[in-house]
Amino acid sequence: MKIYHSVEEFEKVDNAVVTTGTFDGVHVGHLKIINRLREVADAINGETVLLTFLPHPRIVLFSDDDLKLICTKNEKIALLEKAGINHLIIHPFTREFSRLSSIEFVRDILVNKIGTNRLVIGYNHHFGRNREGTFEHLKKCGPVYGFQVEEISALDVDQVEVSSTKIRQALDQGQIKTARRYLMHDFSLTGIVVKGSHLGHKIGFPTANIKVADPHKIIPANGVYSVQVLARNQFYSGMLNIGVRPTLGGTEKTIEVHIIDFDKDVYGEELTLVFDDWIRAEQKFESLDALKIQIEKDKQEVLNR
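Request: output the structure for the sequence above.
Response:
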């Protein structure tokens, strides 16, 4: 997959089959669009082109919007490459860009910059200034600018129309299995190990305190989780706690993972946490001894999964 950091970097290809959108999570609904994109490209001997934006448009247009995203930039790139996209354009989204009318977006970006031959878009897709552009608008533009357009219906899982918003809601409630069904891949967090309070060492469960660099990456609900930990190119079972540590009177959220059967010093190193399942909600215990007893139960539950 070739990656471009603006539409200006992109050089037109023959029979460009294009889709556009934020594609946060690259979930099953997105994959339905991408699979159709590839089918069309194969049928006309073309190449697939996906145009997405960074930052997320809502972050630019609503500066007070505390939007959390399922994927970081690098995670999205990896998922789109796995999905089989030929060309990925990550265009900077600015207020100036947001002022393009729908006609300007079609003419200047899709046609003049990318050279769109076929356009495949998701259900209820909007674009251009004030989201004025619609599928009906694109159908009228197609004959004028020489491209064909196709709309893909939403995809349902368990009778629920999948969307990035619904996946974020599932993660906000600790519903890891639901999020995985909607994503059709694992949810993960990647961060750097930083210094913590060392309480874990004192009670026999040393933890790595994780700092996630991307401030817009969604962090699942407070609680205890079963995870797989990627450390030094190897996976280990892990027990993850997200929360404020109420037994200790904590107030700031931390992300701490106990890596089972692992005793290496990983301060300053990058770890990836791949979520297996929710174990229990965070709770306040009467004492450190009571907390230790519960953590031992949590560990056994992780090992039994």
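The radius of gyration is 22 Å.
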